[in-house]
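Hello everyone,

My group is preparing for a crystallization screen and wants a predicted model to guide construct design. The compound we'll soak is zinc ion. Before spending weeks at the bench, it would help to have a computed complex in hand. I've included the protein sequence and the ligand's SMILES below. Output in structure-token form would be ideal because that's what our pipeline reads.
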Amino acid sequence: MKKPPVRTASRSHELDFIGDHPAIDLVNTVRMVDGELTDTLQTDGDVVVWLGLASVPVSPALASWPEGSLLDATRRLRAETLKMIEAKKAGKRPPLQGLNAFLEAAVSHGRVESRTGTTVEFRRVYHARTPEEYLAPIAEAAADLLANGDFDLVRHCASERCVLRFYDRTKAHCRRYCTAAGCGNRAKVTAYRERKRSGK
Ligand SMILES: [Zn+2]
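Reply:
Good plan to model first. Here are the tokens for the complex, ready for your pipeline.
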């Protein structure tokens, strides 16, 4: 892949979670930007922001890791996830070794916390002492997708120029585009122009 220009905090978050599944959203962090295939994660900070938006709390150990190690681990997890998704879509046995290495680092425990009144919430707390541990919720999401996902619903945006994928959670399973306002609208405009040109 061509090395894209460095994009930091100014990266756009508009398309970050259109995949409707955390593992697909991670894969979607490589996308077309101004007509070029671009890795939108360029720094550890980009990853922290993305994970935060994905509801993964910041690791307290973050400052002690060598610079770039979080980005490196994230890119490895993303590459493994992409390989598995592509294998499943192609009807092939997906490679699991890389994901299992991340899952082995998924150290967590359950925790109950009081909410309003008598309400108690049960949640999972991840230790997040290393980049791999920090990424554990996303690795587990990838494992869940692989084991329990319906891959007929894991699809590419219908636009030829777009590389984004999504998990189609619409009732009728008729989702075609990454976003209605983006690729969906462009497709509509193109179809309209073609109809006009052919005089229909
Ligand atoms: Zn698209």
